[in-house]
C-alpha cells in the first residue's frame, strides 16, 4: 500500500510503500477513497499538543515515524477477516475513527470514547493519509447513501464534534441564548445544526467579519466580534444579560475567558477547541456564578450515525470541500497551519 506520511515531526511529509495488511478475526481492510484534513492533523504533524505554560503532549509518546494521520475517512471494503460480517466487499462506508482498546470496562460498557488506551485511526494507528486502513470491527463502518464521499468523510470528526458539543446544551429553553464562539469549519456546522439539536436562540462570535457574515446566513440570530474592546458588554447586551451556554470551538485563553465572562449566572461553558494555552480564573467564580465548565471531544459512534441521518434529511447544509490528490497532503497541512487560507475542508482523494 501507499502511505502519505509524516517523515519528521513538523518537517517533511513524504510517500512510502508498505506491505498491505491482511485483516484477521473481525478486522476489515478498507481502501481509503477520501480523507478530510483536520486541524488536529496539523498538531499531529507538529508532533505535539500545547498544554500551556511551555508544557507539551508529545506525539512521539504515542506513535513512531513515519506515521500517516487522517481520521476523516470514507473507504470501500477491500478484504474482511474470517469473523467480520455484515459488510460487503466493495461497499463504501464512513469509518468511525475514535476507537477504544475494546477490552476495558469503558469500551465494553458502551463508553468507548472514555477509554484510557485509545486506538484511534490517524492518531494512534495508521489513518487515511495511507491508501489502506485496518478497522478492528465492521460495526465502525457507517453507510452514507445519498451523500458525496468528499463530504461524508468530514462527519467523522468535524460533524460529530459539532453535534456532540451541541448535545451538551440540550437543556436550554427556546428563548435561551446559546453562544457559538469560533465559526470556522466546525463552529459553522454547529450553527447550522443548532436548531435541529438544541432549538434555542443562537449568537455567533468570531473575530473575522467574513465568518460572522457566514454564521448569520447559516442561522445565527446575531453575530458578535469577540475581539472588540467592549466584547463582553456587547454579548451581555445582545442576549439580555448573557447566554445560558457558550461553546468555545477555539479553545484559546482569549476565547475561554470570553466564554466564562459572557455566560449568565448558572451558565455552562463547553470547551471544544484544541488551540492550547492556559488561563487563570478566580475560584470564587464557580460558586458565585454557579458556573459549569465541561469539555467535549469528537463524538460517539451513535453521534456519527445521527449526524449522517441529519445530513441525509437535509438538516445539515454541506460545508465547502476542496478535493485534492492525496500526494498534496503536505501542502494542505501547511495551508491549514497558516490559517485563513482554507475555507471549509480540504479532502484528500486517493486514486
Ligand atoms: Zn479532526
Ligand atoms: Zn478501552
Domain count, please report it: 2
CATH architecture of the largest domain: Alpha-Beta Complex
Using the coordinates shown, work out and report the CATH topology of the largest domain: Quinone Oxidoreductase, Chain A, domain 1
Count of helical stretches? 11
- In whole angstroms, the N-to-C terminal distance is 12 Å
Computed CA radius of gyration, to the nearest angstrom: 20 Å
Mean pLDDT: 95
Largest sheet: 7 strands, mixed
- Superfamily (CATH H level) name of the largest domain: Medium-chain alcohol dehydrogenases, catalytic domain
- Uncertain residue segments: none
CATH class of the largest domain: Alpha Beta
Please indicate the percent range of residues in DSSP E strands (runs of 2 or more): 15-25%
Structure ligands: zinc ion
**SSE string, helix = H, strand = E?**
EEEHEEEEHEEHHEHEHEHEHEHEHEHE
Structural class based on helices, strands and sheet pairing? alpha/beta
**Helical residue percent band:** 25-40%
Task: Name some characteristics of this structure.
single chain, 351 residues, alpha/beta, Quinone Oxidoreductase, Chain A, domain 1, Rossmann fold, seven-stranded mixed β-sheet, six-stranded parallel β-sheet, 11 helices, 17 strands, 26% helix, binds zinc ion
Give a concise summary.
The chain is an alpha/beta fold and 351 residues long. The chain has helices at residues 39-46, 105-108, 149-152, 158-167, 185-197, 209-217, 231-238, 253-262, 285-289, 301-312, 329-338, and strands at 2-6, 13-17, 28-37, 48-52, 55-58, 72-80, 92-95, 132-135, 141-142, 177-181, 201-205, 222-224, 245-248, 268-271, 292-295, 321-325, 345-349.
Amino acid at each position: 500500500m501507499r502511505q502519505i506520511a509524516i517523515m519528521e515531526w513538523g518537517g517533511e511529509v513524504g510517500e512510502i510503500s508498505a506491505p498491505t495488511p491482511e485483516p484477521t478475526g473481525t478486522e476489515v481492510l478498507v481502501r481509503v477513497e477520501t480523507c478530510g484534513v483536520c486541524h488536529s492533523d496539523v498538531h499531529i504533524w507538529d508532533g505535539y499538543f500545547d498544554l500551556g505554560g511551555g508544557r507539551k503532549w508529545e506525539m512521539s509518546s504515542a506513535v513512531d515515524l513515519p506515521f500517516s494521520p487522517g481520521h476523516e475517512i470514507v473507504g470501500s471494503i477491500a478484504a474482511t477477516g474470517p469473523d467480520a460480517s455484515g459488510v460487503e466487499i466493495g461497499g463504501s462506508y464512513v469509518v468511525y475513527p475514535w476507537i477504544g482498546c475494546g477490552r476495558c470496562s469503558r469500551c465494553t460498557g458502551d463508553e468507548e470514547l472514555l477509554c484510557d488506551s485509545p486506538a484511534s485511526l490517524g492518531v494512534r494507528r495508521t489513518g487515511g493519509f495511507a491508501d489502506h486502513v485496518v478497522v478492528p470491527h465492521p460495526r465502525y463502518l457507517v453507510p452514507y447513501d445519498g451523500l458525496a464521499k468528499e463530504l461524508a468523510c468530514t462527519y467523522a470528526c468535524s460533524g460529530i464534534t459539532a453535534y456532540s458539543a451541541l448535545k451538551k446544551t440540550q437543556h436550554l429553553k427556546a428563548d435561551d441564548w446559546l453562544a457559538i464562539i469560533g465559526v470556522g469549519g466546525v463552529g459553522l456546522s454547529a450553527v447550522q445544526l443548532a436548531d435541529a439539536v438544541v432549538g434555542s436562540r443562537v449568537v455567533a462570535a468570531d473575530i473575522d467579519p467574513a465568518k460572522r457574515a457566514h454564521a448569520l446566513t447559516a442561522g445565527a440570530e446575531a453575530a458578535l466580534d469577540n475581539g472588540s474592546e467592549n466584547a463582553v458588554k456587547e454579548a451581555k447586551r445582545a442576549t439580555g444579560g448573557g447566554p445560558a451556554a457558550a461553546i468555545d470551538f477555539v479553545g484559546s485563553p482569549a476565547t475561554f475567558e470570553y466564554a466564562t465572562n459572557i455566560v449568565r449566572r448558572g451558565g455552562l461553558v463547553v470547551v471544544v477547541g484544541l488551540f492550547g494555552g492556559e488561563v487563570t480564573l478566580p475560584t470564587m467564580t464557580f460558586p458565585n456564578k454557579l458556573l459549569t465548565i465541561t469539555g467535549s471531544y469528537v463524538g460517539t459512534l451513535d453521534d456519527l450515525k445521527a449526524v449522517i441521518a441529519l445530513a441525509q434529511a437535509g438538516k445539515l447544509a454541506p460545508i465547502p470541500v476542496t478535493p485534492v490528490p492525496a500526494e498534496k497532503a503536505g501542502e494542505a497541512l501547511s495551508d491549514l497551519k497558516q490559517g485563513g487560507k482554507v475555507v471549509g475542508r480540504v479532502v484528500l482523494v486517493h486514486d
